Amino acid sequence: MLTGAQQNNLAAAGQQRRINPIRPLTIKQLTEGMSVGDGVMVIDGHEVTQATIVGRVVGYENANMAAGGAQTAKHFGYRITDTTGLLVARQWVDGGSESEPLPLNSHVRASGSVKVWQDAPVVTGTVVAVADSNELNYHALDAILTHLRLTKGNRRPVEGKSSLTNTPGAVGVQNMLPGGSSNVPLTDLLVSVIRQNANGSDSGMSMDELVVSAQGYGFSSKDVGAALRILASEGKVYQMHDNRFNI
Predict the structure, then answer these.
(1) Among 11, 20, 91, 112, which is 20 to 30 Å from 56 by CA?
(2) Digit-coded pLDDT (tens) for 31-85
(3) pTM above the 0.85 mark?
(4) Residue spans per domain, the chain
(5) Is 112 left (phi over 0), alpha (psi -120 to 50) or beta?
């Protein structure tokens, strides 16, 4: 049974986590952030107490880690790069632990509290290996999107056409979309077109194919490009390596 003081402490901790959620960042954002007060980081005008980064292990904070010395250390210290900068991330371990540090060149995600130590930010928490090196790219996009939302708000392109009038008079009976809605966003149209043409495969559709499909409803290539950017930012569509798009 929790005492009243313990319940108050848990409530305060939960409120603190909501106020300062873990934030995706690039290493450059962290190293160029402003340090104020007692090692507090401020980025984009917002206090950052917890962060997550993704990068590659290029070295160890303690040279003895490579020779097994980390087995008696209090923490594993990794030097991580994401091509934008270099950062130390630490993971605390038991003094008698037999666990080994992650090997060099591993792609990892480091998450935890952010503090300034010797004039440089350090992330202390967990460091885990990631199975897919593409997570580095996804994380970078997440960090950029979060930065734009904090500095510019949730803006969407207003130029061009963004929806279609789904009626026989506007698009013809043969081109009407199912569902009965008379006003269909272009983003929904593109998702529907990709889903219908994918047929369970991973081939996706090219930009030219999407434009041709959308032109049948009166949209331009510029409209399609703007809609795809929205879908990508929302995680509904991703771009493949050969400039094709899939869901």
Answers:
(1) 20
(2) 998 877 676 788 888 888 899 999 999 999 875 555 444 443 578 899 999 988 9
(3) no
(4) 23-151, 185-246
(5) left
